[in-house]
Amino acid sequence: MKHILFCYSFLFCLTLNAQEKSIVPSVAHVQTTYHNELFYSMKESATIIYDETTQAFLVKIDFGKLKTGVDSLDEWLLDLEESQLVYKAALTPEAFPTPGNLVSKSIKLPGTISFNNQSHNVDLNLLIFEVNEQGIMYRDYGNNQYDKFRFRFSINIAPKDYKLDKKKHHLKKTITVMVSNGVINLIKH
Prior knowledge:
189 residues, mainly beta, Lipocalin, disordered N terminus, 13% helix, 9 strands, 44% strand, eight-stranded antiparallel β-barrel
């Protein structure tokens, strides 16, 4: 019995690992004001995951991937580099627009942001838009109709709400996270 359980566990881990390797990151633009100057970084540090079966929608921003390699530009990121912002919500398949003629749909999506060991309920203004299958933004990731859609949203983080103002660099100004061409990574069961 233990052998069978081990085999099932091993196969589950292999499936999960295979799905992680096929995850496509999205570009996140993150900015804030630090010492009266605007600082920003833009890199493939966002992961958007959607599970149609459970209707789970997850956005993960990995701040460690946003570093530029220039110390003077990355100083404000030092308080964030070991953190990941995670937004979780329920998103029904019916929330997606009906494909055809490059449609788009704006929705207010209630969810929860977890960041720096703090969690808060947040309404995300999410734009779901269709891309042209012959256009440069379209990629066939094997996600059926979801390959035709992209997400656009921004999240404003008040450092005090997530206790970032208590860290070494005392970030106080709003941190804005934007994704304008978010790729859907569909969980397949």
